[in-house]
Amino acid sequence: MKLSRTWALAALSASAMTLGVAHAEDRSDWPSSFTVGTASQGGTYFAYGSGWANFVADNIGISGGGEVTGGPMQNMALVHTGDLAFGLTTMGPARESIDGNSPLAPGMKMDNVCAMFPMYQTPFSVTTLSSSGIESIADIPAGSRIGFGPAGSTSDTYFPRMLETLGVDFERRNGGWTDLGGQLQDGLLDVIAFAAGIPIPAVSQLEVQTDVNIIEFTEAEMNTILSEFPVSEFTIPASTYSTLNEDARAVSMWNFAIANCDLPESFVYEVTKLTMENNDKMVSIHKAARTSVPENYGKNTFIPWHPGAARWFNENGYSIDASMIQ
After folding, report:
1. Where are the beta strands (DSSP E) in 48-91?
2. Residue span of the signal peptide, if any (predicted)?
């Protein structure tokens, strides 16, 4: 298909900015725009996903942006159906969605979702106001009002189960992270159970406005969670928040960027190439992107890789077996 003069000039201009986008790539089947499914405002997904979308759009010559969603579970569904080109997801919700166990669509196997690249680990952490007197999981009073993030999010899917396993009795509340932070300050919530990449914007904002406690798991609590859920050990560095005087013990899940499997191979190849070859730009979007590096590709053990993404990894010495490629 012959490109219009205006589009050709725009493409040439974008290539001239060159952050690794190929000059001779055939774009005839590329979409005219794209959207990235993130999560609620005030969370890491929104900051990371919106920034990444803008970075990609600025450098490949196609308009794109982030979209507020309910988080990983909903992103799996929207990418599967093609309503979104790209999304961000956590491995636990991804597994449940692929297996047909998503609460959003029970029985539907969301198998038109492909992996693109590793993002970062999502730590599970608890935050309260210092004035609450809550300094440990065991201190949380029976019947406490706990905010678990947007319905269907990673936090909402797994944190209630984790706290129930640890014997905590609570009233479950949902909402965006920024909104929940406001409710905590106003005394409408007792605790927020966060699952998001660090630093979490909503927690950083709370620290500026009031005194908070960031509660870690005890070693025994962590071991209980590790034995019951698909998580791994994680340490929140003391430097993450001004509130922390020392590293905090936590558990975490890995996050991956995902793509609709029907997207053109060359398009996903160029987006993956741009992202994986410019980690400094990604870190400037969000510090959590320090681990958005190709060496972590092996953290995905079950989401099939998009052929475009797999081509970039295989060309650069990161072996993805053909059986793992859609």
Report:
1. 63-67, 86-90
2. 1-24
